[in-house]
Specification:
Blueprint lengths: L10 E5 L1 H8 L8 H10 L4 E4 L10 H14 L4 E6 L3 H10 L3 E4 L19 H13 L3 E6 L3 H10 L3 E5 L1 H8 L4 H16 L12 E5 L7 H7 L5 E4 L1 H10 L1 H12 L1
Parallel strand pairs: 1-2, 1-8, 2-3, 3-4, 4-5, 5-6, 6-7, 7-8
Amino acid sequence: MLDEIAAVPTKLSVNLNAVAFLRNRRDMPWPNVVDIARLVLDAGAHGITVHPRPDQRHIRFSDVHDLAALIVSEYPEAEFNVEGYPSPDFLDLAMASKAHQVTLVPDDPSQSTSDHGWQVEKDHDLLYRAIGALHANGQRVSLFVDVRAADVLAAGGVGADRVEFYTGPFAALFERSDHVQELGQLREAAHAARQAGHNAQPGLRGLTMNAGHDLTLSNLPALKETVPDLAEVSIGHGITADALVMGFPEAVRRYLQVLS
């Protein structure tokens, strides 16, 4: 029998990649990524997420440093989450940023966006080394995983602090009202996360759960009902699309209402 878990408020981390992508279409300094970060944090968002890629096609390496400085100087209670593939260059950038959370994703540099999670057992050695280095730097590590119990359990075994469920398939099926099976897989994966052994902190059981990709005001309620103890969602494309209509502050407030 799967867990019966009390609901908790889920934190909102706003991904600014889409904002940076719009800025980079022209040789202009706007929209200013730091100014948008202030807008969403002032509206109540709990943190900021960025995913710098090697070609800097949206978030630039300089943005990572600028946003890290903003959090430290103006929003010390907010969290900074940096996502990326654990190449030496990315790990150096993530560690220098002192991001509170580093989310490791298995992206190929040519991908337009994340479209799958880690095969954790296959990539065990790479992940174990990266997680060890980030822990030594005092940073929390989340692994981007498909909604599969086996990968969730393996994430606990490799030393991750959290998992981030890749919710792209759920979101696509939700649009077709064909997501019941995916919700069942989410329940099973969440159960596995709660039961996972945690090698990084001996004696502590369970992996904290995040989620991200194609989440919207429409599909978040079903996700929250299925995983009521979801700690954090990272949302970029959906909230940016909504912000084009209602502005970022109002969009943030609407997402916070759904997540509370």
